[in-house]
Amino acid sequence: CTYMLYSLFYNRLKNIEENEGGLDKFSKSYKTFGVNQFVDGGIYCKEWAPGAEAVFLAGDFNGWNPFSHPYKKMEYGKWELFIPPGQDGYPPVPHGSKLKVVIRAQNGELLYRISPWARYVVRDEDKVNYDWVHWNPPQSYIHKHPSPKRLKSLRIYESHVGIASPEGKVASYKNFTYNVLPRIKDLGYNCVQLMAIMEHAYYASFGYQVTSFFAASSRYGTPDDLKEMIDVAHSMGITVLLDVVHSHASKNSEDGLNKFDGTDSCFFHSGHRGNHQLWDSRLFDYANWEVLRFLLSNLRMWIEDYRFDGFRFDGVTSMLYHHHGIGTGFSGDYNEYFGLHVDEDALCYLMLANHMIKFLHPECITIAEDVSGMPALCRPVAEGGGGFDYRLAMAIPDKWIQIIKELKDEDWNMGNIVHTLTNRRYEEKYIAYAESHDQALVGDKTLAFRLMDAEMYTNMSVLSPLTPVIDRGIQLHKMIRLITHALGGESYLNFMGNEFGHPEWLDFPRRGNNESYHYARRQFNLTEDHLLRYRFLNAFDRDMNKWEEKFGWLASPPAYVSEKHESNKVIAFERAGLIFIFNFHPYQSYVDYRVVPGNSLIVIFKYEILLDSDAAEYGGHQRLDHSTEYFSEEYPHNYRPNSLMVSKMIFFFFHSTFS
Predict the structure, then answer these.
(1) Which residue range(s) make up the domain with 602?
(2) Which of 38, 269, 380, 590 has the fewest other C-beta atoms within 10 Å?
C-alpha cells in the first residue's frame, strides 16, 4: 500500500515537472492567477472556471459594467484578460478599488464572484457579504528581520488575534504585535501558532470555514499589519506558524469558493462526496490538477509573501479517509489505516505539499492534526511517509479530561497516565498538550474550570481564604502541565490564556448569545493583579518553559520512567539529565523517598531542586528546603545500580527537577 501510494505521489510530481515546468513554477501560480499587476502598470487576470460560458471583470474601475472587460477562453477551463496601463502609466485598476469576477453560467445566469485568488476582502458593517478589494499599495511592507533558525525544542503558543485582548471587541494585528508578542516572549514560548488568519466570513467558526484562501482576515487589519506582526515576532526570535485549512471550505458562494463557476464541481467533488455532513462544508477534489495548483500555491504564498515559518494542517483525519473519521474509532489496528477507505488522493496531496515545502523552504515546519494515528505520517516522503515534522498528541488532553471528570483523586492510575503520555509511534515527533482551543470552547471546560469551577469567581483572591478546591486546582494545574511538557512528546503546545488558568469559556458573538463579545476575549490583566492567584500559574508556566530552554528535554530522547507506583501515586522519570518526581497522592507525603538518578552509571552525583510547584512564587506552601543537596549512591533501586534519597516529598504538590 505504501509502495502504491509513493508511486502515485511520484507520478503526480513527474507530471507536474513535465507539464508545468516544474514544481517551483507550478506552486508560484498565485503570481499569475487572480489579478496581478505588471511592472509597467498593466493588469493580468487569470481564472479557472471550467463550467463557465463566459467570464468578465467588473468593478469600480469600469463603472461596474459587466461586459466591457471579457476574458479570453484558454485550454483546460482557464480564462485570461490583459488590461493595458493608462496613458499616464497608472494601473487601470487602482489600489483599494472593488472588483468582481462575472461568470455567465451554463444556464445563462450572471454570477458575481470573488476571485478564489483574491488577496484582500472586506465587509462593510451594513452588509452581509464580503467585497473583494484590489490590494496593490504603492509601497508594500518590507520585512526587516530574518526568520529564526529551525528550532530544536518547539514551545508553541496557540493564538487567535481577534480574542487577544481583555476588551470585548475584535482585537487587531497591531494589538497582537505590541501587546501580546512581548507577553509570549516573556512566557518562554518560542513559537506562535496563529488561528483564523485565512479569511472566514463567519467569525464564530474560529477560522475553520474559510471563504478566501489567499486573503489575510481584514477584521484584524490590513495585510501589511500582519506582515509587520510576523516581522516583529521574528525580531524576538519567535517562529510563526499558520493554522492552514485545506481539509474543507465554506459553503458560501457569494463571497466564498463554492460554485465559483456555477457548478458544484469546481474545486470540489460533486454530489454527496463533495459535502462534509458534520461540518456543513465543501470537500476538495485532491485529484484535480487545478485544485493541486490552487492549494500548493496557497501554501507558498503564505510562506513567501507573509514569511510564515510553517503550518499546522487542520482536519487531517477528515482528509485521510473517505469516512472522514465520522463514527469511526481507531484502535491502532493496521487494517484501519490501509484499505479502500483511505483517500489516496488526499494523502498524495499532503505528500506533495510537504515535499514542496521541504524542497523550497527546508527550514519550514509542518504539523498534522490527526486523531487517527496514521502510521508514518511524520516520516519523510522519501521513505513513503506523509512528510510532516510533528503530529498532535490528541489523546493526552482527552485523558486528562477523562481522569478529572470520572475518577476520584485516590483512583488515579499512574500506569495509565504514563502510558498515555508515552504511547507514540517510534521516530515520529509528537506535540504534547494538556489542553488546546478545543477544550476552551463553549460546551467544554478548560482544566482550570474543571478543577475549580464556580470557586474561580469567589476565591481566586489572595485576600480570601485558600479553600481546598482552589488549593487542589492550582497545584494540579501546574503538575498536569509539567508532566505533559516533560514526558508527553518532542514539542509542547498551550492555548493562549490557559497558562494562567483563564476563567470561564470561549464563545464568539452569535445569535445564541446576543452577539456578545464577553467570552470572546482573553483577560491577560488577571495575571497583572498581585491580589489574584492567576499570577502564580502564570509564573510557573513561564519558569517551566525557561528551564526547558536551558536543558532542552523536548529535543532529548524519550524519558526513562523509573517509577509509576500505584499505591504511592508517584511517577518518577529522567530526561535530559534531569529527574522529574510527581506525587499525585491526595493526602500522603513521603520522607526519605528513594528514586533513580538521571545518570545511574555515576556513583556519586549531586542534585539540587530546580523547579518546585510548592514554592511560594507558584502559590505553594514552601515545605521544601531548596538549599538541600541530594547525592546519588551505589544503592540498587528499580533495577538500576544507583539511587538517591529525597528527604521530603509533599502530597499532591511536589514535583522537583534535579540537576
Answers:
(1) 560-646
(2) 38
Gap between the Cα atoms of 68 and 55, Å rounded: 11
pLDDT digits (tens, 9 = 90+) for 452-500: 999 999 999 999 999 999 999 999 999 999 999 999 999 999 999 999 9
Task: Tell me the per-residue pLDDT of 369-395, one tens digit each, with 9 for 90 and over.
Answer: 999 999 999 999 999 999 999 999 999
| Angle, vertex CA 418, rays to CA 314 and CA 560, nearest 5 | 105
- Return d(Cα 306, Cα 147) in angstroms, integer: 11
Boundary residue ending a domain (392, 421, 449): 392
What is the rounded CA–CA span in Å between residue 589 and residue 568?
A: 9
Q: What share of the chain is helix, strand, coil (3-state, %, to 5)?
A: 30, 20, 45
Q: At what angle do helices 468-487 and 414-422 cross, to 10 degrees?
A: 40
CATH (domain of 8):
3.20.20.80
Collapse the DSSP code of 392 into the 3-class scheme (helix H, G, I; strand E, B; otherwise coil) and give the result. Answer: strand
Cβ neighbours around 59 below 10 Å, total: 22
H or E segment to which residue 403 belongs:
helix 395-406
The verdict on pTM exceeding 0.90 is: yes
Q: How many domains does the chain have?
A: 2
Helices (H), 214-327: 223-235, 289-304, 316-320
The answer for 75, left when phi > 0, alpha when psi is -120 to 50, beta otherwise, is: beta
Report yes or no on 242 lying in a domain: no
Which of these, 475, 450, 455, 464, lies nearest to 587 by C-alpha position? 475
- Annotated active-site residue 243? The verdict is no
**Identified catalytic residue from 314, 435, 471, 499:** 314
> CA torsion, points 244, 249, 252, 254, in degrees to nearest 10?
70
Radius of gyration of the chain (CA): 27
Picking from 60, 16, 107, 171, the residue whose alpha carbon sits closest to that of residue 520 is 171
β-bridge pairing 491-495 and 429-432: parallel
Helix (H) or strand (E) holding 156: strand 154-160
Residues 6+ apart with CB under 8 A from 228: 141, 173, 174, 177
